[in-house]
Amino acid sequence: MSAERGAIQRMFSIRSILKALAAVSVALFVGVVATGGTYALWNSSVKIGGGTVKAGAATLVISRALTMSSTLLYPGLTTYGASEVTNSGDVPLQLNLQSLTGVTSNGFTQNLTVSVAVAPSASASVADCPALSSYPWSRVATAPTAGSLGTTLSAGASATLCVSTSLASNAPAAAQGQSAPSFTLTVGGTQP
Fold it and tell me: Domain 60-190 belongs to what architecture?
């Protein structure tokens, strides 16, 4: 009997091992199927047709040249001029004053302030410039730095720029009888 019993025990242990192996195989199969299904839920692909990527053009042109008043300045006086710029590109541009060049330093220019603002209407003229409440770019002519004009110009739009020059009310006598040569204001635009 003991030989039979040993054979039966081996049979049960082989059966137990096979059952356990079958259970693990079924569990692995179910796990792989479940993971594959979840994987399919997170992956998707769609074929799209060809497309065109096109860069915009940023172009700012002076459509009306700056004309300044020819009135002689004296301490405390401000004179005005106007110019027009047009965004002829196809992207909006933030207007800024990039430089003021051509100014030599003397008693007059050290007391001369140059200011630039964008008029509220593109059809504004030099007569509208004195009524502006503020000029966002304002510098002593001998110490200019770049700065924003606080306006974004849409593609195809125009703007009137008002430019003022004023002599300080406390300008010294050394400023008398002197003049500033023609100076150049460079206006630019950057994409917002």
Answer: Sandwich (2.60)
